[in-house]
């Protein structure tokens, strides 16, 4: 006796199963977070009226280099001698790609120590659609940053 197995699985169940497979195949893979790290050395800049600009070089953990330009503001100095800072930064790579970040943290006016947290705001070229976060620390003019990012499709 032959059994028609299709008759034992309701049509609606088979339809849902087929649609699920088609949707999974059609939806692009979700972006996975990628680790990123870089060291920044700032060599020039201006400061006045609580605002500053600084320029220098970033070297990613991969060895890739970028020109960096920072524009920021210093906030009030607290009882520990720390100024709150907000910085907008752009890294421009040799291939024309760029990454724009914003970070906030503190600058110790006595030791020149800096630390804080930032986010990737936008990117161009191979970094188009970048999102993610990072932490930074170091001293005024020399920082190390570590974080993760994803590229939106």
How many distinct folded domains? 1
CATH C-level class is Mainly Beta
Helix content percent band:
10-25%
Kindly state the number of beta strands: 8
Instruction: Give the name of the CATH superfamily.
Output: SO1590-like
Low-confidence segments, given as residue ranges, are 21-30
| General form | globular
Strand order of the largest sheet: 1-2-3-4-5-6-7-8
Order of helices and strands, N to C? Answer: HEEEEEEEE
Give the N-to-C terminal Cα separation: 53 Å
Q: Architecture, according to CATH?
A: Beta Barrel
CATH fold name: AOC barrel-like
Helical region count?
A: 1
Radius of gyration: 24 Å
Report the sheet-strand fraction: over 45%
Overall pLDDT, averaged?
A: 85
Structural class: mainly beta
| Sheet having the most strands | 8 strands, antiparallel, barrel
